[in-house]
Amino acid sequence: MGPGAAITSTDTDTPPDGLPWIEDTGKVSPKDARALSKLFFDRLQVLEEGTPEHQYARNTLIEMNQSLVRYAARRFRNLGSGDMEDILQVGTIGLIKAIDRFDLSREVEFSSFAVPYIHGEIKRFFRDTTWAVHVPRRLQELRTELTRAQDELNDRLGRGPTVAELAGHLGLTEAEIIDGRVAANGYTAGSLDLQTDSGDDTPAAAGGRVFADTLGACDPAMELIEDFHALAPLLGQLDERDRGIVEMRFGREMTQSEIGAELGVSQMHVSRLLSRILTTLRTGMLAEE
């Protein structure tokens, strides 16, 4: 990419700390984005959180790596629900989380680090918005595998595959295939506007009872109980300093710079400590699922 294609380095446009000013991130190719991202991450680690310089570097990384979100979203375009614009927005949340947690010292490509975060956010979006009843994650993922396998075998055999053929294709038992098909019934549900079978033939539009009238309201806080229950013992396993850092960051909502000042360490060191702590907690949470 030539120096004037999407990046300018004139005195008036160059932002502080020597970072290039990118006029149109949409014109930055994925290859150039990889090289530029290393530069921006290198500077991001030493910029103070909350400053205009830090915000510029972080926002540019988000915009410059949107191609990773589009790439990851393609995997979900045939699932049959969810507007692609919503999927891209959710994927961007995963990208932002990856940017905030990435450390150049890992010596891995950012794309390899970010794509699992993006996939994870999109999968969570589908689990939270498209399943009508709670189904274990293993069976939710099996439904997706079954859908793909049925399409492949339909094309190959010219007919719908049997349970035995699906089992052989996926390397699973027939019982597992049956479990996956049963779980798929939880993907959709009947309308809450259906008339109740109460002997009252009055149409809903005229004041008749519908199924939604028979349901109680859900307390949104109940959804957090399972997560808190799993997180509590993991927090208890942290040492006193790590628990204090978590409390300052997420309980008292202190910035990394403020935490560093209280602990007598740099903001960059706090960032690394938080990354390690959150990785430990995340690994423990995933092991619980």
From TrEMBL:
Organism, as annotated: Streptomyces niveus (Streptomyces spheroides)
GO molecular function per UniProt: DNA binding; sigma factor activity
Residue intervals of the RNA polymerase sigma-70 domain: 86-99
Pfam families membership: Sigma70_r2 (PF04542), Sigma70_r3 (PF04539), Sigma70_r4 (PF04545)
One of the GO BP terms on file: DNA-templated transcription initiation
Keywords: DNA-binding, Sigma factor, Transcription, Transcription regulation
Designated name of the protein: RNA polymerase subunit sigma
Disordered: annotated span: 1-25
Gene3D superfamilies: 1.20.120.1810, Winged helix-like DNA-binding domain superfamily/Winged helix DNA-binding domain (1.10.10.10)
NCBIfam families reported for this sequence: SigBFG, sigma70-ECF
Organism domain of life: Bacteria
InterPro entries: RNA_pol_sigma-70_dom, RNA_pol_sigma-B/F/G, RNA_pol_sigma70, RNA_pol_sigma70_r2, RNA_pol_sigma70_r3, RNA_pol_sigma70_r4, RNA_pol_sigma_r2, RNA_pol_sigma_r3/r4-like
